[in-house]
Design a protein that fits this description.
With about 190 residues, the chain is of the alpha+beta class. It is built from three helices and four strands, in the order H-H-E-E-H-E-E. The protein is rod-shaped and about 140 Å long.
């Protein structure tokens, strides 16, 4: 074989490889590339839908969290302003606060006062329990007791306070205290 025929043969082989590469590209690679583009488009669309669903899910979780917070708020309001007189709980709170503040309860009377009607149809009428309490203890103990009543979870107010000295030399006093505890009427 001479040099020119080898050259011609190598050109023909190169052309055959080039044509083969073009045919492989056209018949195999190009359709696969189009399919990859289609799959990438579908994936992008599914990611977009997934992001939308995630946003909706986050909003639902936020609403659910807010709803639970409203339940906590309702529970706290019910503790401060219960829906019934809850006389036993109020007596316990008043006597327990006196005990914690080193005051002894000499007597305790409870009266249920008339309901205060509400001007709004949404808000219920307000009920009042009036407690007449006779306590004995030091003046510092009384100050602490009044602060405890003021910061108690149950909504209460002190209406009247009378102080009497027990003895000339002692640091003890008798206190006649009138306090109101409030509740929502049914």
């Amino acid at each position: 074989m001479n040099y020119s025929s080898k050259r011609f043969l190598s050109i023909i082989i190169a052309v055959v490889f080039f044509v083969g590469a073009v045919l492989v590209y056209q018949n195999l690679i190009n359709p696969a590339y189009d399919e990859v583009k289609l799959i990438q488009g579908e994936l992008a669309e599914k990611n977009k839908i997934s992001d939308e669903y995630q946003g909706i899910f986050d909003q639902i979780q936020q609403l659910f969290s807010n709803y639970q917070n409203y339940g906590d708020l309702q529970k706290n309001v019910s503790l401060a302003l219960p829906s019934d007189p809850a006389v036993a709980e109020s007596v316990f709170q008043i006597t327990r606060l006196a005990s914690v503040n080193n005051l002894s309860v000499q007597s305790l009377d409870v009266k249920k006062l008339a309901l205060i009607p509400s001007k709004s149809s949404v808000i219920k009428s307000l009920g009042t329990l009036r407690f007449s309490i006779r306590l004995t203890g030091s003046y510092e103990s009384l100050k602490s007791y009044l602060q405890s009543l003021e910061s108690n979870i149950r909504l209460m107010s002190v209406n009247n306070l009378k102080i009497e000295k027990v003895g000339a030399a002692s640091n003890l006093f008798n206190y006649n205290l009138e306090a109101d505890a409030y509740y929502q009427s049914q």
